Amino acid sequence: MDKISAKWLQEAKDYLEFQVRQGLTEVIIPPFVEPSGPLGPLDVVRNDLGECARCPLHRTRKKIVFGEGAPAARLMFVGEGPGADEDLQGKPFVGRAGQLLTRMIEAMGLTREDVYITNIVKCRPPGNRDPEALEIETCFPFLERQIKAISPEVIVALGRISAGTLLGAKAPLSRLRGRFHDRGGIPIMPTYHPSFLLRQERERRWKGEAWADLKLVMGLLGLSGANSGDTP
Ligand code: SF4
Prior knowledge:
9 helices
């Protein structure tokens, strides 16, 4: 056996042993689908993800929520994980929080089709709990590949989990937001998750701070926005 095959086999063995330790009892190999046209870099990542069973979240999800939007978007939004509506539809940010995110994007003078929207984990954590460290660690390489494929000019990290994961930071979101952080040459703007803003609807301060963060992003991208300056 040559060195490359031996290395590949060792990696496959390590991966399967890792899955068994996580409680995996069966391996599902998705059927091979002949591509209808040339695959873009994001399609390759989606194909590699397949009908993923790499972490325990696959047991309770209905649909994988990979992400959607422009494959070469200048601006990328990264949330935490799919909720109930997203799990049913297989699309990111389609529930109430998604509607608020859509209004925020439109206030920036953009549409959802102009940006790319995804999450840290691609499967819904049961009961909308926080994703666990192992689930994040297992899913994160696919987000890294999405970021590499899209190569955005800026990423907005929505919420504590997204900001903490992308920046490897433990500081509270209130200390991270309001300024850009560098991640491998890509500026990251942490801000509040739309679900949090909905829960704090009576308190205008949070929405105002989120809008201030997005205005900094607009400045970086040279966008004048569709909003006169009020919070969306
Ligand atoms: S959360 Fe990510 S790693 Fe876990 S099963 Fe879903 S796609 Fe796979």
